[in-house]
Amino acid sequence: MIEKCSIPGVPLREIVMIFFLVFAVQEIFGYKTQGWRRALCIAGYILSCGALLLLFYWKPEWDVWANCIRCSLEEADIVLLRTTDEFRIYSRKTVTWISVSALIRSRTDYPATAEEDSIFSKAIMKPSLQVKSIQVQKIRYVWNIYAKQFQKVGALEDHLTCSAIHAKFGSGLTCNEQNVRRVICGPNSIDVPVIPIWKLLIKEVLNPFYVFQLFSVCLWFAEDYMEYATAIIIMSLLSIFLTVYDLRQQSIKLHRLVESHNNIMVTVCRNKEGFQELESHHLVPGDTLVLKEGKTLLPCDAILISGQCIVNESMLTGESIPVTKTHLPQADNFEPWRMHCAEDYKKHVLFCGTEVIQTKADDRGVVKAVVLRTGFNTAKGDLVRSILYPKPMNFKLYRDALRFLMCLIAFAAIGMIYTVCVFVLNGVREVVKKALDVITIAVPPALPAALTTGIIYTQRRLKKKGIFCISPQRINMCGQLNLICFDKTGTLTEDGLDLWGLLPSERNCFQDIHNFPADHSLPWGPVFRAMAVCHSLIVWQGKIQGDPLDVKMFEATNWVKLCQGPTYATVVRPGPKASSVITILHQFPFSSALQRMSVIAQEIGGEQQVFTKGAPEMVAINTSQIQCKNRPKAKGRIKSFCLFFTLREEVESDLTFLGLLIMENRLKRETKPVLEELSAARIRSVMVTGDNIRTAVTVAKNAGMISATNRVILVEANQVPGSFSASITWKPLEENKTEDYRSLVSYHFAMSGKSYQIVAQLSPKSLLFLPQLLLNGTVFARMSPGHKSSLVEEFQKLDYFVGMCGDGANDCGALKVAHAGISLSEQEASVASPFTSQTPSIACVPELIREGRAALVTSFCMFKYMALYSTIQYLGVLLLYWQLNSFGNYQFLFQDLAITTVIGVTMSFTGAYPKLVPYRPPSQLISPPLLLSVVLNILFSLSMQIFGFVVVQEQPWYSKTNIHSACVSVNNPMENDSSVSSLGLHGMRDGALEQTDNGYKSYENTTVWLLSTINCLIVALVFSKGKPFRQPIYTNYVFVVVLIVQLGICLFLVFADIDDLYSKMDVSIVTGEGKLSRASTIFLLLLLLQEAVIENRPLWLLLKKTFRYHSKSQYKRLQRVLEEDSAWKLWKVSEEHFLL
Predict the structure, then answer these.
(1) Which residues cross the membrane (predicted)?
(2) Distance in angstroms (rounded) separating the CA atoms of residues 199 and 183
């Protein structure tokens, strides 16, 4: 589907081109620079002293719109990219020109002579011999002059067939072809340079937050408010240095991750020129690599076209298990090679960063591989790019925080207008400075730093618990998680399978179960031979290496020895009870599409035999006799594989059933308690595994994910041949159940990856049907890595906050797209996961949720406190402006530094509450309880300050001209008469402090300042509530001590009666009983308000029910719809067959 562009003047054809790009769904628009526009912008930079340039740095689209005019992509020298997600992020790219004229001297040198349909021939413009290109997120795109669009280079074309790859690249490229491709594609390197400190520093300093702080500091220095300005500078520099240090360390780690294979020596074939040694960064797509014996680190992705390889793919899968790679078949058809190989195309591909540990040549003599992808186009390059350019997460807290800051700015604008009016009408000079100062009061410069402090403390607590975080901004999102997807093997269950027993079959009947370990050995026969040879094990570094399941099966034979023959063929040498040797002649590796593997083996002097093992439901279709009498029902935690034997020449057909190999998949000790804890907290658990669906359901039941009283309904979908419809079948997994399905209330759906893909791809009907399944889907089996990522995204579309927990084997994609990905593996494969647990246990999940909830609540409390502190100070200043007065410098300093900064640092020390309650903290600031809390606190503060302002003027001792009229001074009465306040405001925070009077002293000033200061302490205490998401406030000893000390200082100022101190603090002498009573009243009222209204969850639930308020989350809406849908109730509880 193509939608019209929202930017007028761009041809529809340009938008069509967007969908041919591999820009991760970005729209592209062409622009052409105009000289006169550019000159005007340069003049604007100069006249604005760089402010306009800084604005364009923050908004690159404004820079393009100001300097350029729209045009077609063909004419453009600047392109503007825009993401199509909710963020609509713009990025600016400059079009560059690559010259190949030095490499093409004659017509025969054109790449088109070797490959007419290649992008390299279609990108070279004639006669200039130049290539137009742009680079987006480390990927280079060139302009296709025929298709009129940008296309990615650095990879072989997808349309190539198997036979075309063998024919065109089997003998290698010529030197000239290789040179042209290298210039166009760029070097084959995943180059992540260590970013210089000065670049990191400049980028951090240009953050809008620090720019605002710079503005505030300059204004404060102009007003001689040097103490707090210096403190802000020190804190900002410390924050900048810590951030730069952290970014620098991450850059170094990422550089070390990729530098190992960026420059190694390789051997390539040159067409008509033989073999050539060169550095790996010179490789281009289409080069033919020669893989020699011994260990080799692959510098690119390559397609194996001859021979066989065994590689270690731990970089990709997280499992250090040898994987066998076979060569690409020379299929003579017109299908693209990837489509021809279907899901098994990866068994022909050698991935960048993996290690070739063994090669085996065929009759062609050498092992060859054609370079498929280079640089950042490779699998490892994609992993690195996911770290460099993480997917932005949309979290309501951050969006609402920005909106709230905009409200504060609007609030400040009102204060500026009020300030201008008051000072202009009274003829006071320097109005501009006074008005600008209102902004620094209403918008707290320390707010972002205070919010970051809580995240830093949480990150440290997680680190102490063995949970490492590379994406701190996601910690708050963990507090909102309400659905966790778990991998099974290695996550919920033990990493490996244990061999439980063998159920052999003879003459169409099951025999007695042979348990492992057993006192007697398995008798020699077809079943024993199948266990000895039907595997992909190799001898590596003197040890038997391979899939753990194969290792368990092989070791169960006890007396079989494995070794490598002279031609790297696997040879099985039996013990003394057998007189023959078995050689594995050929191996068909395990196929994820076929879900089985086979070997051709031969005993010395015997016939060649084919042995196959795999998933029972997939292999059963190839057997001649599969139905056995007295077939037992599988019980417990088992995983079954069928073993087959045949003497026929046709491989994997008409097989004879040998038996079931029973593997036990034990739950981890902590699995069931953790899932019970999540269930009690109303956090939904879902299993996403590549295992058999019945095995997954059994594990889910034993783990408590599915209650024994709940029914499991298997959903199967099959594509209807020749149509866009699917056949959907509902079938209860339990057998021999006589209950009425229509009376069921609780149920769980289980479905396979194949069924999920069919339902997900059917549009538009599945747009409604799939969400209905996901609402109660608990077990998703036979899921590929792509299926897992897609499932997580579908849950997110239903407004679930999704966490993904896996061991890093096949979960990397899902770990990246989830709101919180938790890897239980520390291999490179999981380096892009936001969270990594040092302990391979799902116990880290509730710990992370607890800390996330505490961090989220702390962020809300900190935001409310900082906003209220600035508002309280803002109201007090505006109130004093009415008398052309204000707070003194040391009064500001005490509130800003001694009160707010210290509270902001220590409030976040409160740890997480140990119990997960069955509801989540609020996720947005724009919610009735939080808004009511802020608004009522502001009204209380305003009313109390106005009350104090008015009441002090009504006192009998009040004098507008004598600030000592409240005191009866006997010793020095003349001083009282002479110390008259100059009511003219000499400038807010202006001039040096004078020992006697600087124009700030007044009874109103003292009253309002003390009330606002104590009000800040009261608000901090009220907002520091502990349970149910944080520990009680008294556990935060530092914070409690800080509040006590600050309150003591305030009381000391009230009762001290020290003239020098009062003179420094610009405080006049007023009796403190009235202020204490008012402060106590404020505290009691705010505490009562917080406990009785704001934090009263039953009250808010009652109000929601009374006003019929319903959650706007998609899954909640869908649940309400389905509860009223009688047809859906019928489908979900009965065996049904219908078309979708």
Answers:
(1) 12-29, 35-58, 228-247, 401-426, 438-457, 866-884, 890-909, 930-952, 1006-1024, 1036-1056
(2) 28
Buried residues in 804-834 as b, exposed as e (16+ CB within 10 A)? bbbbbbbbbbbbbbbbbbbbbbebbbbbbbb
> Could you read off the pLDDT of 908-955 as tens digits, one per residue?
889 899 999 988 888 777 777 777 777 878 888 888 888 878 877 787
Q: How crowded is residue 585: how many other Cβ atoms within 10 Å of its Cβ?
A: 14
* Whether pLDDT at 516 is above 50: yes
Burial level of 211, CB count in 10 A (0-12/13-18/19+)?
Answer: middle
Q: Which residue among the candidates 63, 301, 487, 550 is catalytic per the annotation?
A: 487
> How many other CB atoms are there within 10 angstroms of residue 34's CB atom?
12
Q: Which amino acid is at 659?
A: G
pLDDT tier at 970, thresholds 50, 70, 90: very low
Measure CA 87 to chain center.
15
Identify the residue with better confidence: 665 or 591. 665
Q: Please tell me whether residue 1121 adopts helix, strand or coil conformation.
A: helix
Amino acid identity at 517: P
Query: What is d(CA 572, CA 601) in angstroms, rounded to the nearest whole number?
Result: 10
Is there a contact between 299 and 261 (Cβ–Cβ < 8 Å)? yes
φ, ψ at 806 (rounded to 5°): -150, 170
- The edge-to-edge listing of strands for the beta sheet with 90-94 is 68-71, 26-33, 78-83, 90-94
Query: Cis omega (within 30 of 0) on the bond before 445?
Result: no
DSSP letter string, 970-1020: SS-HHHHHH-B---S---TT-SPPPSS--S---HHHHHHHHHHHHHHHHHH
Structure tokens at 24: 């991760």
Q: Which two tokens stand for residue 181?
A: 């491709």
CA 780 to the chain's CA centroid: 22
User: Is the predicted pLDDT of residue 978 greater than 50, yes or no?
Assistant: no
Rounded Cα gap, residues 778 and 688, in angstroms: 8
Residue with tokens 């640092």: 905
pLDDT at 21: 34
SS (H, E, C) 895-945: HHHHHHHHHHHHHHHCCECCCCCCCCCCCCCCCHHHHHHHHHHHHHHHHHH
User: For residue 204, with 0-12 CB atoms within 10 Å meaning exposed, 13-18 middle and 19 or more buried, which class applies?
Assistant: middle
Q: What is the pLDDT of residue 518?
A: 62
Distance CA 620, CA 630 (A): 18
**pLDDT beyond 80 at 626:** no
Q: Which residues pair with 602 in a beta bridge?
A: 583, 608
pLDDT of residue 114: 43
Q: Give the model confidence (pLDDT) of 875-888 as tens digits.
A: 888 888 888 888 88
Give the separation between CA 844 and CA 469, rounded to whole angstroms: 12
Higher pLDDT, 823 or 638: 823
DSSP code at position 493: B
Contact 726, 718 (CB under 8 A): yes
Residue with the two structure tokens 């949970």: 467
For residue 398, the tally of other CB atoms under 10 A from its CB is: 16
Through-space distance between the first and last CA atoms of the chain, rounded to whole angstroms:
21
977 is catalytic: no
Mean pLDDT of the chain: 76
pLDDT-based confidence at residue 69 (cuts at 50, 70, 90): very high
Cα separation, 649 vs 654, whole angstroms: 10
Query: In the numeric block, which tokens belong to residue 20?
Result: 């041919």
Measured from the Cβ of residue 433, the count of other Cβ atoms closer than 10 Å reads: 15
- pTM equals 0.77
Which of 895, 1110, 933, 908 is CA-nearest to residue 1024?
A: 908
The CA distances from residue 685 to 700, 776, 792, in Å, are: 10, 11, 12
Indicate the residue type of 338. R
